[in-house]
């Protein structure tokens, strides 16, 4: 019934070591682009007037130097080029910094949510023996993940208690349908808790069917 290999599903996505910062590209690119647009807009608002006035002042100084000190014209021209290059490099550096910063920030946000989503998918399939979620200390939502792990452990303990109660239920084997349903239910609970693999479950179910036919 519960024939899923959860170890293969959780290994690449539920460990705390993530090599790539791109976890959910669509989500991350969306907010990175918003941050970049805001940075470029504010940068242009500040840099365009600065660029204009600096170049205007240098043009005035260069014009005056042609009349009064021609020997410093080349120095002023080189200085003007360096100032313009410095402003362009500074703005480009801000864009790169914001991109890297937002990439790391969104990875810290998306990473735990992505892991939690994958974990819930496995629980929805009935695999309650999955290991607890582990995320990096630098990730966001530490409290939420800790609360979720506590819930998972508590619910698993409740399942184990229910399974122990089911095992103690006495079913008359002469009631074929009731006995088979009870055994299938117990085995499904065992497999959910990792106490019975899918192959063993099939073997036990086949044995129950043989016992049922023998009784009949």
How would you summarize the topology of this molecule?
Elements: H1 6-10, H2 25-68, H3 73-124, H4 142-167, H5 176-192, H6 198-215
Helix pairs in contact: 2-3, 4-5, 5-6
Short description, anyone?
The chain has 216 residues and is mainly alpha-helical. 75% of the residues lie in helices and 0% in strands. It has helices at residues 6-10, 25-68, 73-124, 142-167, 176-192, 198-215.
Can you put this structure into words, describing what you see?
By secondary structure, the protein is mainly alpha-helical. It has a domain at 6-141. The protein has six helices and no strands.
Q: What are the main properties of this structure?
A:
single chain, 216 residues, mainly alpha, 6 helices, rod-shaped, disordered N terminus, disordered C terminus
What average pLDDT do the residues reach?
77
Helix content: over 70%
Overall geometric form:
rod-shaped
Summing up helix and strand content along with how strands pair, one would put the structural category as mainly alpha
Number of helices: 6
Instruction: Please report which band the strand proportion falls in: under 5%, 5-15%, 15-25%, 25-35%, 35-45% or over 45%.
Output: under 5%
**How is the quaternary structure best described?**
single chain
Which sequence of SSEs, written as H and E, runs from N to C?
A: HHHHHH
Low-confidence stretches: 1-16, 198-216
Distance between the termini: 25 Å
